[in-house]
Amino acid sequence: MNDIHIFNLYAMATHFEARIAGEEKTYAAQTAQAAFALADDLESRLSRFRANSDIARIARLMPGEQARVSEPAFACLETAKKMEMATRGAFSVCASALQSQAAPPQWTLLKEQFSVRCDSGKLEMDLGAIGKGFALDRMAEALREWSCPAFLLVAGGSSVLAGDAPAGTAGWSCGLGDDQSPVHYWLKNCSLSGSGLAVKGRHIFDPRTGKPARRENRAWALTDTAAESDALSTACMVLDEAEISEVIAVEKTWLVFLEDNGTARHLGRRALPARA
Amino acid sequence: MVNSSITRREFIGATAAAGAGLMLAPGAKVFGQTKSANGKLNVALIGFGAEGRVLMESLLVIPGIQVVAIVDIWPYARTYGQRYLKAMGHEVKAYENYQDLLAGEKDLQAVVVATPDFWHAPITNACLKAGLHVYCEKMMSNTIEGARSMVQTMRQTGKLLQIGHQRRSNPRYIFALNHVIHGGKLCGRLTAVNGQWNRAVSEDLGWPKHSEMTPAQLAKYGYKDMHQFRNWRWYKGMGGGPLSDLGAHQIDVFNWWLGRPAESVMAGGGLDYYKPPQFAKRDWYDNAMVIYEYPMPLGVVRAFYQVQTTTSAGGGYYEYFMGDDGALKMSEDPRITALYREARAPSWDEWVRKNYIRAAAAPPAPADAEKVDVRETAQLAKYDMNVSFNEYIHQPHLENFFNAIRGQAKLTCPGDEAFRSEYVIHKANEAIPAQKRIAITSQEVEA
């Protein structure tokens, strides 16, 4: 059995956890600290509640204005834009803006200037459904940089990002749903995120209509990166099953699980991980 | 961009007023040769550690600034910096040390120094003498003598030296000082100040396995090993510990807002927590409590400062200015900032009408003058300041530096002004082992 060291951080209104296998404890702790420092840094750039963050600065733009943002913020928004297009608008970082604006605000990324331009409305972005996943992806880069490839990163219990498997194992055993879930898979070098209404109630809005999510049961997404799985699982809460099938048909690395009568059905072309 | 409720003219006026008490060093000039051939200010960042990276983000968004080089003795940091900047569309040169930078860059106007403290004075002095304007992070130096030499070089060369107490250029701080403390005198007679920055326990800083520098490389720059290089803040001869790392910013606000340095200091503290075998041996105090005394025209103001190693749940970081009419809890973080009015204070309605402040939670007005409901003691009336700015935290201070180079502004924290704060912070670190009140004369705080 591997020694697995577990470290914790509270940031982005979320409990982050880093599990590191196959490494001496002090070095693992310093590595986790470096990864957590990244998460803290990302919060200062991505939180809409931080007055001088990139997201807060973007929110003050008037139509036609643009603001240069940091590299991480731009990269996160690039992924957000990609996921918005891939999910046909079912995921949007401006989903909650429809609670206060008549039409969804429009924005453009200007790669040459590393800037965000406000095209219309007020860019009230909430990166809650992608920022934590993005943070996990960046933390994973740091762990690999520090030569700690066997890790599991957890954000708030709703997103995990698995690195290499601990030595001698098939991966990290991750379950779908509550503690003691009967459905566990061995995960390595992939991310699993879940969305649902059980913990936070009806907090997910359909960016296309502004109305609360239709899905009553949980949805999970398994992808290569945590930013994608975070956004895709959220989108699955507002898409019906036929729409989900269409969305994930174009991306062979995506797999979706839908909760159904106490079990989880899967959709998509990605091979199922081995059952743990 | 400043909050629209305060006009730009008012803000500029506020900035000028705040800077009025600060003077350029005697003999300081703004030279005509303040631009590069491309019309921009060419800037190098010396020290690409955690603080350097924060400053870089601001440098990249300030118009008219071209970052042309980064400097760091650690190859890992240089590689990271070049890679990061390339991803942002900037090709920059990377140098191991400032001597190589000065030899290699011939069209440079300014440097930003964010190295460990004990390198600030040698680097700043060399760059000023090379004809460059310098923005240097606080502390100015790990020694009073080092800091004094920087001011002297600033005066000798006539070049600008801005010290990185970024609150001095923060529009919220300038607004609070000009309109809340001075203009409206909303706090009345100030009697006490309380500042703090407490932190949770953290590990020693490590480094990726493959990134270690050789003993010879480390020794060349004054470090005995990688641990000391990464954790220099905790070692005497290199940094000043938490009191200078964190306290310097806030104690500088004490001096700035009270308009003078303290006349005495006493302090308690120690190296209580970070001890072997759990942690590598350190030098500096991990807990400190300091009391400064400021003789003011209406009476003494005592200012307490604490920096502790225990918990991150200590209420955040702030400077709390308390008077007989009101209290302003000021912080770089607007979420922590709060302004309270005492029941005895004159009405603040005028300031609300002027849109300088807004009521956040007012006590309920009595519905009937002949009746009263008896319940818990009412909360003090709470107000917010109606000002914000749409920039990174360090950006206004860097902008002030660059505008001063262009002859469009006065520095908000020139070296000689910063030295006064520097001095009393060093004295706090002295007061802990001395275990006695240390008097500070008005002469000794001058560089």
Our count of helices of chain A gives 6
CATH homologous superfamily name of the largest domain in chain B? Dihydrodipicolinate Reductase, domain 2
Going by CATH, the architecture of the largest domain in chain B would be 2-Layer Sandwich
What share of residues are in beta strands of chain A? 25-35%
CATH superfamily of the largest domain in chain A: ApbE-like domains
Give the distance, in angstroms, between the N- and C-terminal Cα atoms of chain B: 35 Å
Average pLDDT, all residues of chain B: 90
Indicate the low-confidence ranges of chain B by residue numbers. 1-32
Uncertain runs of chain A: none
Level-1 CATH class name of the largest domain in chain B: Alpha Beta
Greatest contact between two chains: A-B, 24 and 27 residues
Sequence of secondary-structure elements of chain A:
EEHHEHEEHEEEEEEHHEE
- Find the count of extended strands of chain B (DSSP E, 2+ residues): 18
Key traits:
heterodimer, A: 276 residues, alpha+beta, T-fold, 8-stranded antiparallel sheet, 25% strand, globular, B: 447 residues, alpha/beta, Rossmann fold, Dihydrodipicolinate Reductase, domain 2, 10-stranded mixed sheet, 6-stranded parallel sheet, disordered N terminus
Descriptive report:
The complex is a heterodimer of chains A (276) and B (447). Chain A is an alpha+beta fold. Chain A folds into 2 domains: 174 residues, T-fold, CATH 3.10.520; 79 residues, no CATH class. Chain A is built from 6 helices and 13 strands. In chain A, α1 packs antiparallel against α4, α3 runs parallel beside α5 and α4 packs antiparallel against α5. Chain A is globular and about 55 Å long. Chain B has 447 residues and is α/β, with parallel strands linked by helices. Chain B folds into 2 domains: 166 residues, Rossmann fold, CATH 3.40.50.720; 240 residues, 2-Layer Sandwich (Dihydrodipicolinate Reductase, domain 2). Chain B has 14 helices and 18 strands. In chain B, the strands form 3 sheets. Chain B has a 10-stranded mixed β-sheet with strand order 16-17-15-14-13-7-11-10-9-18. Chain B has a 6-stranded parallel β-sheet with strand order 3-2-1-4-5-6, with helices on both faces. Chain B has a two-stranded parallel sheet with strand order 8-12. In chain B, α5 links the parallel β4 and β5. The longest helix of chain B is centred in the last third of the chain and has 20 residues. Chain B is globular, with a radius of gyration of 23 Å. The N terminus of chain B is likely disordered. Classes of the chains: A alpha+beta (276), B alpha/beta (447). At the A-B interface, α1 of A face α2 of B.
